[in-house]
Specification:
Blueprint lengths: L11 H24 L7 H19 L6 H14 L6 E3 L1 H9 L8 E5 L6 E6 L4 H5 L6 E5 L2 E2 L5 H8 L6 E7 L7 E6 L9 E4 L4 E5 L7 H14 L4 E5 L8 H9 L6 E6 L6 E4 L11 E5 L6 H11 L4 E4 L7 E7 L5 E10 L15 E2 L9 H4 L15 H11 L2 H7 L1
Parallel strand pairs: 9-10, 10-13, 13-14, 14-17
Antiparallel strand pairs: 1-16, 2-3, 3-4, 4-5, 4-6, 6-7, 8-9, 11-12, 11-16, 15-16
Helix pairs in contact: 1-2, 1-3, 7-8, 8-9
């Protein structure tokens, strides 16, 4: 059963007018409720009456009888999504599916939504997913999924379209920078099998750790890998968080704590969510080795918590590009008709108060990603997975090794 129906017989401009008016109506209803009856001028209620009148005119004079319930659903969704790409309205059916967390197969994409043009686009293909293998790239704009334009759907709906039975395929139309024609791609759906945290001792006894995604329990695995590298004689560490995401922010805090024995890792704050500081626990810190963190545009969410903490506590260097900027907490709020609102209730900040959401974390050393010149199938492969991938092509890793091997005074001069 389809959860939403794209298109329709209604003229687009007229449909847009109805949705726009309904959106403003809902806005004033919400504002009016917040202001309460104590508002001296009653302007919110006056304007609410005007929009009620406009809706009545539409109902009575529009070319066809509009489905106001459907229009209101669209208006509510538009209202929520105007706040940020991760807030949305869920119909009763969507809410049931969301809460069931059905483990459908998918194509393994971390997505966001571009505000101006409203298309869904790729933060990064998840390593181990079929999209990465098919050649989907960070920054790709998904114009349509199975012929449904992504301008008219929420991120949640886009993920529903991308999910399905194992072995089935989903057709994508992708707009890619540098290419004049859309890229047509058919990607198989499969169960996502994340690669394990990979580690290896590089040249000059530098330990390398590659994290594909922050999921539950990953901090414990990273702890073991760090201890193993230390036992092998590592005298420095590279933590590779490129194209790494995941909303397990607690795991990000725990990983940062492995390298910090004091200081604020991050804090969260929202209008109705009190400030909550995550402070490093000295008992959890296990490594004092020199550290470099690799990040890029595809680094998001929990990975950004780690980068910001390491940078602002002056525990190590950040090499690569500015991270994506996706660090907010969502809460599902049920409504009376079994529908729900998925609302961002708090955002994460760095120790100094720098907001991460929409801003990202800037690197200490901005270095281009030479892997972008390689075939798509090799871009996300780490050095311990494919020995044919030379460091000479990976400028960011090369810079990290340089920083961990040159004397401190020379490193300052190169900054």
């Amino acid at each position: 059963m389809k959860l939403f129906q794209p298109g329709g017989e209604m003229n687009y401009q007229n449909k847009f007018l109805v949705i726009l008016i309904s959106t403003v109506l809902v806005f004033y209803a919400v504002v009016g409720g917040l202001l309460g009856r104590g508002a001296s001028d009653g302007s919110a209620y006056t304007q609410l009456a005007i929009f009620n009148e406009v809706l009545a005119k539409i109902k009575g004079s529009y070319v066809e009888d509009p489905n106001l319930s459907k229009v209101m659903h669209g208006a509510l969704r538009g209202l929520l999504e105007s706040l940020d790409p991760y807030s949305t309205y869920l119909t009763a059916e969507e809410n049931a599916r969301y809460q069931a967390r059905r483990s459908d197969a998918n194509v393994g994409l971390e997505l966001s939504k571009e505000k101006i043009l409203s298309y869904v686009y790729v933060i990064h293909p998840i390593e181990g997913g079929s999209s990465a293998q098919a050649g989907v790239r960070s920054g790709d704009v998904i114009e349509s999924i199975e012929g449904v334009t992504t301008r008219n759907i929420s991120l949640l709906q886009a993920n529903y379209l991308l999910s399905g039975k194992v072995g089935s395929t989903v057709n994508l139309k992708i707009l890619r920078r540098g290419q004049t024609e859309p890229v047509q791609m058919s990607v198989p759906r499969k169960k996502l099998q994340l690669p394990p945290v990979r580690s290896r001792l590089l040249e000059k006894k530098i330990g390398y750790l590659r994290v594909a995604r922050f999921v539950g329990g990953v901090s414990a695995v990273i702890r073991e890998k760090i201890q193993d590298l230390g036992a092998q004689g590592a005298n420095g560490l590279v933590l590779d968080l490129r194209d790494c995401g995941g909303d397990e922010f607690g795991e990000g805090v725990e990983v940062a704590n492995l390298f910090l024995d004091h200081g604020i890792i991050a804090y969260s704050l929202g209008q109705k969510s009190p400030k909550h500081e995550f402070v490093a626990d000295p008992a959890k810190a296990i490594s004092t080795l020199p550290l470099v963190v690799l990040q890029n545009y595809g680094s998001a969410s929990a990975a950004e918590i780690v980068s910001a903490a390491i940078k602002e506590n002056h525990r190590g260097d950040i090499v690569g590009g500015r991270s994506f900027g996706k660090a907010s907490v969502q809460k599902l709020i049920p409504l009376e008709d079994n529908s729900a609102v998925l609302l961002s209730i708090a955002k994460f900040y760095s120790q100094s108060g720098q907001i991460i959401q929409s801003k990202g974390v800037s690197p200490d050393y901005e270095v281009a990603d030479g892997r972008a010149e390689l075939p798509s199938s090799q871009q996300a492969v780490s050095p311990d997975k494919d020995h044919s991938l030379k460091k000479d092509n990976d400028f960011q890793l090369k810079k990290a090794i340089e920083l961990l091997t040159v004397p401190t005074d020379q490193k300052r001069q190169a900054a």
